[in-house]
Please model this.
Amino acid sequence: MSTINTMEDLIQVLDEHPEWLEALRARLLSRELLDLPHNFAMFVTEMREFKSEMNEFKAQVDRFVAATNSRFDGVDARLDKVDARFDGVDARLDKVDARLDGHDAMFKRITDDLGQLKGAHARNAALENAAIIARDLGLRRTKSLSREELLDLIDASDTVGITVDDLRSFRVADLIMEAAAEDGEICYVAVEISYTANGRDTQRAIRNAEFMTRFTGKRSFAVVSGLYRDDRIQESIESGELCWHQLTPEQLEAE
Model:
């Protein structure tokens, strides 16, 4: 039997008897340490397989991202075309809007011109019937005051407290008549005329009648005349503050 005195003797004996080396290793090392080389080899194998799977997964993700980007590029291209079409539609709509604006402006001019024509036609009809307006009030028209007579009246009167705008409006009144009552009393009638009489006509007629009373000291009447009237002036008519003279369609017919 071999005698072991030194570490070199032990190593030599183990080299000569490999089975003793295995028995010694089994005695000195735990099962986990003994299995470590095998387990590590398995771990390396699994890691290589995992790496391969991850490489394949990454390749799939890259292909998916590339396909998605390609689709988005296609969508972007189609959206660019849609945007271009909408730009074309917007341009055409802008042209349509411009034309409509032109038509609206033209229609407004026509409407304004027509309103002025209707107002002028109603004014002419009322002026021709001035005597009838006076008779409806129980008066007899003696004359219609001219613009020059109104200016002279303003110049000769106390106008303190009256605005310049009101005086300008007064001197271009539609109609101011001098009239006589049955007892010979001289009165004045301030008439405002419109195709459709409204609140503005009412205010001017009442104001002009008040000015005539102030300037002459005579009794004055406020009248509005037209083919139609705004319902909002009904209260002034019913209160007696204002008289209403309605024109007829026949009076406005063109000769």
Q: What stands out?
A: The mean pLDDT is 85.
